[in-house]
Amino acid sequence: xxxxxxxxxxxxxxxxxxxxxxxxxxxxxxxxxxxxxxxxxxxxxxxxxxxxxxxxxxxxxxxxxxxxxxxxxxxxxxxxxxxxxxxxxxxxxxxxxxxxxxx
Length: 103
Description:
The chain is mostly helical. The chain has one domain. Helix content is 74%, strand content 0%. The chain is built from 4 helices and no strands. It has helices at residues 3-13, 22-49, 61-81, 87-102. Helix 1 (3-13) crosses helix 4 (87-102), helix 2 (22-49) packs across helix 3 and helix 2 (22-49) runs antiparallel to helix 4. The two termini are 23 Å apart. The model has no long low-confidence stretch (mean pLDDT 79).
């Protein structure tokens, strides 16, 4: 996602009327950036787990597919909450820069 798309996403999601204070804007931008990073990481991890097969007597099937997708989503959230890969920081800066220009 390019910074322009990220800025547009945040601007549409967090309009100034919804978040009146600068500190609230910064917090909302940080949360949106961290959410985006967790989704991005989940997608990366999902492709990493695609080739892993399971033991037939104890694994496989639709239940494991559902569990694995939920597990990968949680991995993405945890990695992002622990600092991630630095994507959230860059996105937060761009979102705040876009808000300054808009005001």
